[in-house]
Amino acid sequence: MTNQTLLSSYDMVLFTAPSGAGKTTVVRHLLEKYKDDLGFSISVTTRSQRPNEVDGRDYYFVSEDEFKVLIAENKLVEWEEVYSGGYYGTLKSEVDRLLSIGKKLVFDIDVYGAQSIKDKFGNRCLAVYVKPPSFNTLVKRLKDRKTENLDSLKKRVNRIKKELLFEHAFDYILLNDVLEETLSEAEKLIENHLI
Ligand code: ADP
Ligand code: 5GP
């Protein structure tokens, strides 16, 4: 579902959504399917690494002090304290690196960071909001993912209510109900508007 008329060609695509909506699932699928054309903008974060995550593939995991140095040295395109004590940011060096090797960039980013990226890159960036079928489904997915403890789950659920209000703030709404249909719609977006 489009909010705007889409352009025929973008350099970048960002996927944003409330936590648990499925953007990482969509992004991983697209990166695997279009590995020659797309490159993932690996963010830097202070949150702890999950068992299935690889440092330098999913994120660059750093301490809060290291993150603050990156801010002070102006090394980030944008950054957010997404959860209290959980900092996330997009590295300028990552954007430059991927563009220099001819990749189309893919961002997986929260709704506030996504607005900063869209403001900065404008028509170069297709901004996609991944919409969960309902609040309850979203919370269930988050619980079933089993990556959160009670405290971090609460923080995410509190934030979801605000994040759900951003549905119409981006270029395209990708409903993630039946996963196969979502992935096929996401593939069409990439094939028609990026590569
Ligand atoms: P996000 O990156 O937006 O936080 P994830 O991609 O980690 O979300 O997805 C959250 C959980 O929901 C994961 O366990 C994922 O496997 C699952 N999931 C994603 N899309 C669907 C879907 N369409 N139907 C059912 N489960 C899904
Ligand atoms: P998670 O901890 O589930 O990997 O990510 C939490 C939230 O942070 C998600 O909404 C994710 O998209 C977002 N995020 C990941 N990287 C960045 C980033 O570089 N900047 C911002 N602003 N948000 C990010």
In short:
The mean pLDDT is about 95. By secondary structure, the protein is of the alpha/beta class. It is built from 7 helices and 9 strands; from the N terminus they run βαβββαββαβαβααβα.
How would you explain this protein's 3D organization?
The protein has a single domain, classed as Rossmann fold (3-Layer(aba) Sandwich). 41% of the residues lie in helices and 23% in strands. It has helices spanning 23-33, 64-72, 92-100, 111-121, 135-145, 150-163, 179-193, and strands spanning 12-16, 38-40, 43-45, 59-61, 76-83, 86-91, 104-108, 125-131, 172-175. The chain has a five-stranded parallel beta sheet with strand order 2-7-1-8-9, with helices on both faces. Strands 4-3-6-5 form a four-stranded mixed beta sheet, with helices on both faces. Helix 5 runs antiparallel to helix 6. The longest helix is centred in the last third of the chain and has 15 residues, at 179-193. The radius of gyration is 16 Å and the shape is globular. The model has no long low-confidence stretch (mean pLDDT 95).
